[in-house]
Amino acid sequence: MADRRENALQYARKNKEKFLNAYKEILKIPSVSTDPAHSVDIRYASEWLAAQLRTLGMQKVQIFPTSKHPIVYGEWLGAGGAPTVLIYGHYDVQPADPLNLWKTDPFDPVVRGEEIFARGASDMKGQVVVMLKAVESLVKTGGMPVNLKWLFEGEEEIGSPNLATFIAEHKDLLSSDFAVNPDAGMIGKEYPTITYALRGLAYFELRIYGPGQDLHSGIYGGVVHNPAIVLAELVAGMHDAKGRVTLPGFYDRVLKLTKEEREELARLPIDDNNFLQITGAPALYGEAGFTANERTGARPSLDVNGMLSGFTGEGSKTVIPSLAMAKISMRLVPDQDPKEVHQQFIRYLQKQAPKDIRWELIAMAGASASISDRNNVWVQAMGKALETVWGTRPYFRREGGSIPVVRDMQELLGVESVISGFGLPDDNVHAPNEKMHLPTWYRGIEAFIHFFLNLIP
Ligand code: BES
Ligand code: MN
Question: Would the pTM of this model clear 0.90, i.e. be above it?
């Protein structure tokens, strides 16, 4: 057993270059899920993964088409009575724009210093390759100690619209003891982290229609309501003076933080000052009475993700726009429901929007929040693996981002996820110059080797 561990670790150490090359290969595929122009790349990425699984000796490797992007499955059930682990990953990425802010091509990975730069380097192709290479290290030495099932989707960054249906229709295929999900990162590179809660999401496009066409602002200024101004007023009304969201009933289902949990969150090695530094904002803003850790982890929020109206080019143009649009989304916490939040948004608009304009609200991505069990043996196996590699016990934290599959697996399969990845807070995920810290990435591979071996006696 000791040898088995040592052999797998040795294999990983010897094959660093080779692992890095595989990582670069998948980073070169621009698998942007939101953009139909990239559907060929999405398909190519799914085929790349299927090929990797076959090379690892996985069986039943199959690419399942969905109404949008394919799901990749593979399994190896040769470990007898050992546990069966469901490994989750997504191979899609966010769009790379604004392109002009990238120092190098987002789909031509470059190593600078200890970091590799490319879209998806951290979220989450790097994490996917960590799992593939940890498994390879075991397969090529003593063999896999546990049974494996792999589930890769290509729609995570657009809210996983087809995944729940797929899971519901393949319950037997996916049945397993627990899942691992490395799609959430670390508090800092010396702070191994297990994430036990994620926020949900309700994403909308709000359109405000004013005059039938753009108008000369001299001829018509002062006689019609300007949709950009209406939109600004509506958005401004969505928070009160205490930073609370004003949609009717928005907080009704929000679970209160217990005293114990607040004390625990206060012990995390990151505080308001770190948030101030990382964000580069002149000051923090948010719901009064909560720390930044509490606000991102356990309180809901509302943001404008983008706005569009009228003339935004060089110089000046005197015009009253006929349309104003904003992308508006809320991060949700247990037990808020994205569908209920949609209704709350409609009620807000019915009450607040002036009658002299027309509005339209389009619901986009939606996901439920989740809280995961943090005392089971699978979490303990991960905790021990992280401690072995980092020499320090992992921190347990609540995360502000969303991973829809975690709740879907709980509800549809009765399967809990162990959520632990190796991205860092300054990886620029979803932003220009996304990167991954390579020494941390290699440590991640070793951690997963330990983790799999920790699952058997
Ligand atoms: N990996 C992220 C989720 C995440 C972000 C975990 C930050 C931990 C920290 C994931 O790929 C993601 O970005 N999800 C989207 C989901 C949405 C489109 C439903 C998100 O959170 O915006
Ligand atoms: Mn993401």
Answer: yes
Q: Which atom of ligand 1 is nearest to the CA of 430?
A: 13
User: Ligand 1 test: best mutation among 403, 405, 419, 434, most atoms within 8 Å of CB?
Assistant: 403
DSSP string, 268-292: SS--HHHHHHHH--SS---STT--H
Q: Which two tokens stand for residue 299?
A: 């309180």
Give the number of other Cβ atoms within 10 Å of residue 162's Cβ. Answer: 20
Catalytic residues: 92, 156
pLDDT tens across 26-76, in order? 999 999 999 999 999 999 999 999 999 999 999 999 999 999 999 999 999
What is the predicted pLDDT for the residue at 1?
59
Neighbour tally for 455: CB within 10 Å:
22
**Rounded Cα gap, residues 283 and 292, in angstroms:** 12
**Structure tokens belonging to residue 368:** 């439920």
Burial of 198 (0-12, 13-18, 19+ CB in 10 A): buried
Query: How many angstroms separate the Cα of 440 from the Cα of each of 91, 114, 422, 446?
Result: 20, 9, 7, 10
Pairing status of strand 301-309 against strand 323-332: antiparallel
Does the beta carbon of 419 sit less than 6 angstroms from any atom of ligand 1?
Answer: no
Longest dimension (CA), the chain: 84
Q: Which of 238, 398, 395 is nearest to 304 (CA)?
A: 238
Q: What is the pLDDT of residues 148-187, one digit of tens each?
A: 999 999 999 998 999 999 999 999 999 999 999 999 999 9
Asked whether the beta carbons of 53 and 136 are under 8 A apart, the reply is: no
> Which whole number is the average pLDDT over 343-371?
96
Whether the link from the prior residue into 92 is cis, omega within 30° of 0, is no
